[in-house]
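U., I forgot to send this yesterday:
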Amino acid sequence: MKRIFLALLFVSGSMVINGQSAFREKYRPQIHFSPRGNWMNDPNGMVFYKGVYHLFFQYYPDSTVWGPMHWGHATSKDLVHWREQPIALYPDSLGYIFSGSAVVDKNNTSLLGKNGRVPLVAAFTHHNIKMERAGNKNFQYQSLAYSLDDGKSWIKYANNPVLKNPGITDFRDPKIMWYEADRKWIMTLATKDRVTFYTSKNLKDWTKQSEFGESLGAHGGVWECPDLFSIDYKGKTIWVLLVSINPGGPNGGSATQYFTGNFDGQFFKPFQTDTRWLDYGTDNYAGVTWSNTGRRKIFIGWMSNWQYANIVPTQKWRSATTLPRELTIQKIGESYFVSSLPVKELDILNKDTKVITMHAPVKDITLSEGPGKIELSSGKAESFSFTFSNRSGEMVIAGYDQGSNEYYIDRTRSGKTDFESKFAARHTAPRIGNSTGLNMTLITDEASIEMFADNGLTVMTDIFFPATPYGNVQFKCGENFSLKKLAYTSLKSIWRQ
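Result:
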């Protein structure tokens, strides 16, 4: 085996949030958004307006474990640097504030706009805990809030809820989009073991149109956080439906599946009947796309898993988001696949890049400090691995196994794993691309790794908790490995200014 040894130093230091220095806690992400403190889970309500990306998220400000849900709020002008804002929505007499979405009602179809101000309208699930405890199945229903100051503050609609529960115990997570062909709004709603589509002309009065998925896709758990949108592929409109599921993921616990197909404003008809996963790792869940971004479809997920989210060994906060990713379509044979790659805006974090070739005997290379990005491409699909390790002997291994034609991330010996019995495991993902060669990008942070293989056709995200940051990377491959490119780029922290 050829070996290239890459010595990495993962930096400690201070963090800047809202212009104020904060202590950089152990495991704190340096290139991912995480709240200053306490609990977060699903991203929701994401909308782009007047040059600002709004990221709302499930938030409990009084603890580091799940509790009565609020909508936390963060904003960014570049999808990279985030500023945490005041809480947007608080629980009320109708219930906790569960996941949902937000849109720009530019034509004021809702009549919520006043004095020429365009309303941003959020749809969310009210979860009535009192009704749930009383055994009433109708404890989830859909409500609205709106903003007349570009998302800074939110007013709950006076006549909530706008969509009552027909008697389904899991009736939640409305994702709204404008369907221009019929000039109407589409609500994609998770309804236990399927998705239900509703339509409205004014965002207030909703009519059921159809259901999808009762006998298709993965059904190892409840369906959640759906998202319906279209992507242009060489002049052809491909519709994509994302559906998160918990449990039942390909490597255990939570995960997000997707379908490609056609949508006519009433029915979604899939192209495929096999189950496909947007991310095969264990730590990308409940992700959806931003609205109002034009032709770009930008996705972000919750970087954790319900299997252990409440008990991971962080102290002042729990959970972060994945890196934002741009979704596109790739066609293999007659099948359409969704690919995802980190958004191009992340390049502003690039520092020094070191390119390594096999034309000379390279053994040891010292690299710059900070989180990093490794890019590899080869002329053939041959086995290789990257081992990230520290002086304590803890490690995460990521690579490709030619024999099984699978990518993998092995966190068996990654550090602290005893908080959950199944955390220490080797996770695998099939190689979907069929080209002769392959390529991979690995992006590492203090406690996470994200793999994008074959231009984003196979993606894996895993978190880990080493005693000390991994300071070394070792690349292993066969003697005749057809390396075309191997490069490491150090990345700046998004918090230090």
